[in-house]
Write a structure and sequence with these properties.
By secondary structure, the protein is an all-alpha fold. It is built from 7 helices and no strands.
């Protein structure tokens, strides 16, 4: 008997990948050998880059779950774009570690912001494919427009952060943080559940 691929299975697999990525990131956190609290201060780049990366994964996870409610039927294209999205997110521990070890130096922050651009592009493609098959009664044209506007705004902010980081890496990192705030709440209200 052949098991059918369902949106719930794709969501469960995605959840597992996110759990592994968070685990890999947390393993990069190393405690200092000294006994004093002052020994923690030099670790601020590690703490802040970990927190921002963890926030990105939390935002992706929440938005992914809200978005998957609107999948009418799985297509091979939808499965593949989900894998592309996961592939890009899987580079987050590497980029986070490089930003931390170099104390927010220019090249690592440019790469970090560039990774956010790529992750966001893949998510936008995933979102567009899912919303294109969603019932108009549950996802109105206005909701689609709002989701598209917000997605483009966040993408523009990540791209700007990448360019700014060439000259002012900490400001570029700050732009990444500001852009993430726009995605704290899912595009599609949970009250409009199909």
């Amino acid at each position: 008997m052949r098991e059918e691929m369902t949106p719930d299975r794709v969501t469960a697999f995605t959840d597992g990948v996110f759990a592994v990525i968070v685990t890999v990131m947390v393993l990069e956190l190393k405690a200092p050998d000294q006994l004093q609290f002052s020994a923690l201060w030099p670790l601020w780049p590690t703490a802040i880059s970990y927190a921002v990366s963890f926030l990105l994964i939390a935002i992706i996870w929440i938005n992914h779950h809200h978005l998957m409610r609107f999948v009418a039927h799985l297509t091979l294209g939808l499965i593949w774009i989900n894998f592309v999205h996961l592939f890009l997110v899987s580079f987050l521990p590497f980029a986070t570690s490089w930003v931390a070890r170099t104390q927010l130096a220019s090249s690592p922050v440019v790469l970090y912001a560039g990774l956010f651009v790529c992750i966001d592009i893949a998510y936008n493609v995933l979102e567009r494919q899912i919303l294109s098959q969603a019932d108009a009664q549950h996802v109105t044209a206005g909701m689609r427009r709002m989701a598209r506007r917000r997605s483009l705004s966040v993408l523009a902010a990540f791209a700007a952060a990448m360019l700014v980081a060439l000259i002012a890496p900490r400001l570029g990192f700050g732009l990444i943080c500001a852009a993430l705030i726009l995605h704290l709440r899912p595009d599609l209200s949970p009250s409009r559940r199909p």
